[in-house]
Amino acid sequence: MLPSRLALPLPCRPLRNIEVTLSTQALPVQVQNVSKIYGRTAVLRDVSLELDAGRFYVLRGENGAGKSTLMRIVAGLSRPTHGSVRIFGRKGSEQLAHLGYMAHAPLVYDELSGMENLRFFAHLYGMESDAPLEEAMTRVGLNPKLSRRVGQYSQGMRQRLSLARAIFHSPRLVLLDEPFSNVDPESAGQIAHLLAAMRASGTTILLITHQLGLLSDIADEFLFLSAGALVGRSSASRVKA
Amino acid sequence: MSSSLLKLTAVNIAKDLRLEWRSRDVFNSMLFFAVLVVVIFSFSFEPTVDESRRMAGGLFWVAFLFSTIVALNQSWARELRNGVLDAYRISPSAPEALFLGKCLGNFVFVALLECLMVPLFVLFYNLSSVGPIWQLLLVLLLGTWGLVINGTFFAAMSIRTHNRELMLPLLLLPVSIPAVATMVEATKDVLTGEASPVPHIKFLAVYCVVFTAASFLLFETVLNAE
Questions:
Q1: How far is Cα A187 from Cα A48, in angstroms, rounded to an integer?
Q2: Which of A:121-160 have CB within 8 Å of B?
């Protein structure tokens, strides 16, 4: 049984009046009747969705179904045309410290090394110590001592650094947009193992991927998007059957 | 201003200086442009000492205005590369720290350029000041901040547009005209000693305060605009 208020496991010194405690009553993600319209094109149509804490969700759909757009809206990077999104029961930017996001782009500076990048982003979360950053680097299979600039990294290494940037602050909700793209099979398996460990520690994960084989044993539920609409959701056991 | 905001601003400045030290994208393009302006105009005219004093202010500020525009586009472009700005937007850090850090970083680059270019102006145009030099330093300081604060704000506005290289001058130049005209007049007044530059300096100070406050208040809206 979880306590009613759970302390955030990072030394957060927020600047946007963010509460440093999480209500375990609130769902990690509540998407209500969200539509996103660009000009005359509806990219998302009336999507409603609730994600429970500590579960692993895989978002599936054809190219252009609106998966990445939905993820950007949940992350707060894009505003829905209609509808609303609540993260841990709150709207807007109030829960950013609890959110980790990995996009198609690596979201890191090419001119800095991996650790320099993580140090910069750690400051934005009020973190001073190198220890959690080194741990994040190690967990994704990168050497924290690597002094090479990110511009000289391979695509797979960038992808792993991007994952380290998304998880170094131990977020309670992690959004991952195609984390296995450009990653060799061995590293992809390592990342899947890491995600399983995160889920086991209570982190909610929403992930977009086309490589389902890696997740067959760790995903809890699959969500299906088609032409901007949520057309179904089913448990992983039913999908496997 | 809270200490954490100041600390985050310092982190942003340090990051910008480190990125620039390693890439030299911004400073090299600024320096190249400013040197071109000085050299080309010095070949085009052969002014007397008095004429130099009258026209140097105009040349000087035109060179820095356009060099600043070149720099500002690039300083924001590196935040868009690899989508880094999104990583900033989903962090709990205050957007004002990013803006202030970017402004101060750009101020350092432009001020450094001025330190290199002023001796070149003196050399190529045979300049000497009749008025007190400290007034010229004050004009340089306020003028540079005026250019940088507006430029950084409007560059942030234009970074997501398709023609950002064109959009920035279109947005920035009309707003900067009163300040640039004042900088030119103030510089001429100090160099020639014909009139007091104090009213111009006061105008520049008010201009800087107003646009710093407005940019600071509006930056979060600009950052999160789609």
A1: 34
A2: 121, 123-126, 149
**Count of residues for chain A?**
241
Each domain of chain B, given as residue ranges in start order, spans 3-223
Mutate to test the interface with B, among A10, A77, A175 (most CBs of B within 10 A): A77
Report the length, in residues, of chain B.
226
Distance CA B70, CA B72 (A): 6
> Distance (Å) from the C-alpha of residue B93 to the closest C-alpha of chain A?
5
The Cα B161–Cα B163 span in angstroms is 6
Is the pTM above the cut of 0.95? no
Kindly give the residue spans of alpha helices, DSSP state H, lying in B45-132: 49-80, 84-89, 95-125
Which of residues A17 and B25 earns the better pLDDT score? B25
Q: Nearest CA to B154 among B177, B173, B140, B141?
A: B173
- Phi/psi-derived region of residue A61, left when phi > 0, alpha when psi is between -120 and 50, beta in every other case: left
In this complex, the residue of A16, A75, A105 whose CB is nearest that of residue B82 is A105
Token pair listed for A85: 């999104």
Q: Express each pLDDT in B71-120 by its tens digit.
A: 888 888 889 989 999 999 999 999 999 999 999 999 999 999 999 998 88
Around Cβ B169, how many Cβ atoms within 10 Å?
17
The domain segmentation of chain A, as residue ranges, is 26-107+172-240
Two tokens, residue B38:
């000085």
Cα distances (Å, whole numbers) of residue A228 to A50, A166, A177, B108: 17, 26, 16, 47
Asked if the C-beta of A91 comes within 8 angstroms of chain B's C-beta atoms, the answer is: no
Q: What is the mean pLDDT of residues A15-43?
A: 75
Confirm if B159 and B97 have CB atoms less than 8 A apart. Answer: no
Contacts of B104 (CB under 8 A, 6+ apart): B9, B13
Residue position matching structure tokens 């400290």:
B134
Which residues have C-beta within 8 Å of that of residue B100, sequence separation ≥ 6? Answer: B5, B9, B12, B216
What are the backbone dihedrals phi and psi of residue B113, each rounded to the nearest 5 degrees, phi first?
A: -60, -40
- Judge if ipTM > 0.90: no
Chain A CB contacts of B7 below 8 Å: 123
CATH match for A26-107+172-240 among 3.50.50.60, 3.30.450.20, 3.40.50.300, 2.60.200.20? 3.40.50.300
